[in-house]
Write a structure and sequence with these properties.
Order of helices and strands: HEEEEHEEEEHHEEEEHEH
CATH architecture of the largest domain: 2-Layer Sandwich
Number of domains: 2
Number of strands: 13
Mean pLDDT: 92
Radius of gyration: 21 Å
CATH class of the largest domain: Alpha Beta
Largest sheet: 7 strands, antiparallel
Low-confidence stretches: 186-193
């Protein structure tokens, strides 16, 4: 894993459970102050801290943001038929229902699901009892992989498009969702381009 590989470097110190309190940039170095009072000196700060990037905010980099009237529900399911390591998208009004293949769980084929729907319908779906939600998911999936069984918590994410107005500032570079956020359908197109 990435963590195991990182631990092999003797010049790399990993700190967990800490947050950035402040950032100071000088001509010769950047300083990151953490909430435990410690300080990190570096030639470059890489902001890879997500769509609500503290590094981006502390660097005073503005964003342009567009909100859609949709949310994505994410959860993990087992299903009757194997996915054959293929991602499957089923398109209907409201947005796509996407299976992302995972390793088998307890001997059963398993996938992560990203289900895009209108905000109104997501609100309704999240009020359902587990068996009712599972029934709705089975209907929406067109039973493409057979009967689904939800085996995780259900999360919802707002569908937005967000772009940093600049990707760099003094001794700072933004990557990943600190730099840009794309709706899942755009990410699918980008990854196949």
């Amino acid at each position: 894993t990435l963590l195991e590989n990182a631990m092999e470097y003797s010049n790399l110190e990993l700190k967990f459970g800490l947050t950035t309190s402040s950032i100071i940039r000088r001509d010769d170095a950047a300083f990151v102050y953490l909430n435990d009072g410690s300080q990190i000196k570096s030639k470059l700060i890489i902001g890879a801290d997500g769509r609500d990037s503290l590094v981006r905010d502390k660097s005073q980099i503005k964003i342009s943001k567009r909100e859609f009237s949709q949310k994505a529900l994410t959860f993990i399911v087992t299903h009757e038929r194997p996915h054959k390591n293929a991602s499957i998208e089923i398109h209907r009004s409201g947005g796509p229902f996407t299976f992302v293949p995972l390793a088998d769980f307890e001997g059963k084929p398993c996938s992560s699901v990203v289900w895009m729907e209108s905000n109104k319908n997501v609100k309704r779906l999240l009020t359902l009892k587990p068996k009712q939600f599972e029934e709705e998911a089975n209907n929406r999936s067109c039973m493409h992989l057979g009967k689904l069984r939800v085996i995780s918590e259900i999360s919802d994410w707002p569908i937005i498009s967000q772009l940093a107005k600049q990707l760099t500032a003094k001794r700072t570079a933004l990557i990943a969702e600190a730099a840009h956020v794309l709706p899942p359908t755009c990410q699918s197109v980008q990854s196949t381009a």
